[in-house]
Amino acid sequence: MIFRTLIALLISCGSAFAQGYPNKPIRMISPWAPGGPAEALARTVTLKMSEAMGQPFVIESHGGANGTIGGALAAKASPDGYTIFFSHLGPMAIAPSLMKQMPYDTLKDFEPITQVVAGPTLLCVRNDLPVKSVKDLIAHAKANPGKLSYGSVGIGSTTHLAGEILNQLAGIDTLHVPYKGSTPILTDMMGGRIDIAFIGISGSIQQAQAGQIRAIAISTLRRSPNFPEIPAVSETVPGFELNSWYGMAAPKGTPKAIIDRLQREVAAALKKPDVVAWMKQNGLDPVGSTPEEHAAQIRAELVKWAKAVKDAKVQAN
User: Quick one: average pLDDT of 8-30?
Assistant: First the structure.
């Protein structure tokens, strides 16, 4: 009886606290360098949230260590709803398999709020490769084992691991070539020096539309509503997905009423016409999932990317 009373009291206190929330600025920690696409996305969404909630969101960029520096700061913050982590696939689901010593535990130290957007990439090939679909690519790769090269933005990156997952699921053998960014990949692909690559839409759609490279598929599980004419890889290779998502999470122990309020405000912001237009321009798909849906997604991603890292034989550091 005492235990039940205590639980009821805690829930009541949390709800009462949430009713006056927020009454001061909210700190949003981004785990990437300032001025980049993550900050631009965070500002676009939180501007609408500020208008609805009556308090500004102050974005702090803390890049480094695969996004885990920012993640650690957020995880150790007070669970009062005034520090939010602008989370991402990398520091939440991939870094735990790439780092020997993580400064936080994704499942134990965070309360998932929502997946803000899906971040699809394009599976592209050089123009003179006799490939116009994923089916063609698989057939060509099987006829030329070990001869096709695929570029990535670095060892252990999502674009590297996506190539390895495609190799595994499609039963093909392609050679990984790491670069230091997507720009040199595009340059070498247009110059015929690299055959295949997964490249972010914002960094490749113009070249694809101009006919400088060929975009044969999109990496998210389903077609992007922004580019419905581009088939998903999964339509040919069931189960394949590379979703470089952004989300929001709070330190563990943040009241459920606050988590739910933040999720509702994100979902509402994502429906604003100017936000929708900005997302489309930048190749992002609005989501706004529930905390429960996002939590399940993170658990599944941790398992998936641990296997991808193992299969790619990437050593933790």
Answer: 74
